[in-house]
Amino acid sequence: MSFDWPTALPLIFAGLMGLAILIYVILDGFDLGIGILFAAAEDAEQDTMIAAIGPFWDANETWLVLAVGLLLVAFPMAHGTILTALYLPVFVLLVGLILRGVAFDFRAKVPAGRKHRWNRIFFLGSATASLAQGYMLGVYVLGLDVGLGGMAFGALVALCLSAAYAAMGSAWLIYKTEGDLQRKAVRWLRTALVLTALGMVAVSLATPFASPRIFDKWFLWPEILYLSPLPIVSALLFLWLWRQTFHLPKPDDQHAIRPFLTLAAIFALGFAGLAWSFYPFVVPDRLTIWQAASAPESLAFILVGTVVVLPIIIFYSFYAYRVFGGKATDLTYD
Q1: Please, what is the Cα angle at 139 between 138 and 141, to 5 degrees?
Q2: Of 61, 111, 151, 293, which alpha carbon lies 20 to 30 A from 90's?
Q3: How does it sit in the membrane (predicted)?
Q4: Are the C-beta atoms of residues 185 and 267 closer than 8 Å to each other?
């Protein structure tokens, strides 16, 4: 029996695009979160925070480029539909990413007395990009509803996703820093977890009611039994992490990476729930993966390039995190 490539190729690219989005949210989430936390940090702490993300933040954004690129070339109809509905928030997202990129470099080159201006711009860019991403997620969950209700829900998710990024940033700082800043990061994490949990609950409750099809996928028997571990395990991880914040940092800084890995696991579980909810649609209840996909010949050609590029991105990411592992050191510019 021959392999059904026309059916399999859109699934492969949907999986690759989903993987790129998840990795982006986890990795760029922590450096966006650190930018948001700039508002609560002192000047000396901000230098250490930049040192904690400096070697990684460019590489982290590569995953966003990959995800959007795959959406464009593999699912052009979906790309057009989604970008049409979300044109303004995408524009705001790009402005935020540009601002934080410019501020990241300029704060290192201006006199010390002017650095605070670029620190504020770095915070503004990070917060703007995070809010835009959250708004787009909220509108997407409701089937690209750009009415008043969709906009209000998008605003709620925007705040909660920004808090989730701040939680990721706090967890990364617990791993990468020590002393007073590390203890501050523990307090920031404890606060951000509340809004993070609220956001996941809001999205989890809204998604099944956005469509009767999605409701049936979650609440009919036996699906409800098979899917129950997703919310249960997520809630247990939230509870465990909340309790851990009262016992961090541990002596000799043991297991400092655990809060970050726990949040990454929570994000992955939430993403799995969304993927199950919307499958097989890439545009909720409008376009399926196969309806939106490019021609099989085009997908086969693109897959060859992806097979070459993706391992390089993965290798570089692992290499960068390995080389620049350990605690962030004092920030210097030669």
Answers
A1: 65
A2: 293
A3: Multi-pass membrane protein
A4: no
